[in-house]
Every structure is written in C-alpha cells, then in structure tokens.
Design brief:
Radius of gyration of chain A: 16 Å
Order of helices and strands of chain A: EEEEEEEEEE
Oligomer: homodimer
Largest sheet of chain A: 7 strands, antiparallel
Structural class of chain A: mainly beta
Largest interface: A-B, 64 and 64 residues
CATH class of chain A: Mainly Beta
Distance between the termini of chain A: 25 Å
Strand content of chain A: over 45%
CATH superfamily of chain A: Jelly Rolls
Chain lengths: 119, 119
C-alpha cells in the first residue's frame, strides 16, 4: 500500500482534505470568500486549535470582538475557546488555509521526531 | 491574555511557526527552494504524519523511491515511515507549506468539535 495520498485543488470555494487525503492528525480546508462575503456564523471549538494562513487577497477576522485586518502572508493561531468569524474585504476576495488540530497533541517534532538517512 | 497569536511571512527561504505562534498541536513551516535546489537529505518520521501543500512553482518529491511531480495546488499526506525528499524543478522555484502533526491525534473535528453561536 502506498505511503502517501495526493490531490489537486483548483479554484473551488471550500475544499476539505480530511477524507480526500485520509488525514489522521488534522483537518485542513482551503477556503475562498468572494469580495463582500463572510462566514455566516461565529464559532469556537471544544478541543481543537485552528491555524489560519492567508494565501491570497485580504479581509478581516473578528476574534472575541477584536477586529484583525488580514492580508496574504498573515498566519494566526486561534485558541479553541475564542469566538471567531472571517470576512473578505469589500473590494477583495480572501483565500485562506485553515488547519484544525487537537490542542496539546504534538509531542516531539522536526529533528526530535525525524530519522535522517545518509546517501 | 489574548486568545490568538499572529505573524506575517514574506519571502524568507524557510520559516517555522511553532514557537512564533505558540502552536501546541502542529509544527508548520513555509519553505522555498530555488530552481535546481533540493532538501539536502532524505528523512522519515517516528510518530508524525506530514501534509504538504504546494503554493507556488513546481518540482518533485521522491517518496520511497517513487517520483511524484508537483505543481501549485497539489496537496499530499505522507505517512511517518515513508522516506521523502523534495526538489525544486531545474527551471522553477517551489514554495510549499509543511504541516507536521502526530499520527492519529485528531478526534472530533469541524461540526463535531465546533460550538456555533447565533447572533
């Protein structure tokens, strides 16, 4: 059996990768909101932290009533209990990656989890 | 104390977000290899699965001796034990996100982990 899974994402509005890639440690979605649009609800999480990366466009997020302006290259971590809602700018779409992981689930990483092979 | 952390990433060669954003469930890096360059070693992981998203450019990855061509929009999950090495194309840089999470660490997610507020 293959040790990897692969997909390609084009210009869809929202794509979720958990099932497509058989993820076991994260849910990842790629999201695009057209200019003037917003996620139609406020939400928080029970156990998962979310990391958002803005890959294109601009907009804002409101976190616990604080407004944070967003542009491509911005990355945020949002704690589970924070109430959040994302908005595209009135004159620009916003495209962002959302990575959902269980808070405090990562143990060792990078050099401490890697096995490096000489060749 | 704030319920979020934030940073901005420009055109650096490699940026790691774990400390910068105080991540607890993932390590995330943004990586750029110039045309003709490659990660200078093969590696696998003990406990972590990695999810890679190609955000710009093109190249390839060799996973367990299989070569997979890569272009912007491609996403892969690689199992911990797979041996991997990333390469930029000879005529193009490649920019990719690497998300490292503990295998089998995610329980409920999205609707099952969310609390939605009406307003």
């Amino acid at each position: 059996m293959s040790n990897y899974t692969k997909t390609h994402i084009g210009d869809e509005g929202r794509v979720e990768l958990h099932e497509t890639l058989s993820l076991t440690g994260a849910e990842i979605s790629i999201n695009k909101l057209p200019a003037g649009a917003n996620v139609p609800f406020i939400h928080s999480h029970k156990n998962n932290e979310e990391i958002y990366g803005i890959v294109d466009g601009k907009g804002k997020v409101i976190i616990d009533n604080e407004t944070i302006e967003l542009k491509a290259g911005d990355w945020l971590k949002i704690n589970p209990e924070a109430k959040r809602q994302f908005f595209a700018a009135s004159d620009s779409q916003i495209t962002y990656i959302c990575i959902q992981v269980k808070e405090n689930s990562l143990d060792a990483f990078t050099a401490d989890d890697a096995i490096v092979y000489s060749y």
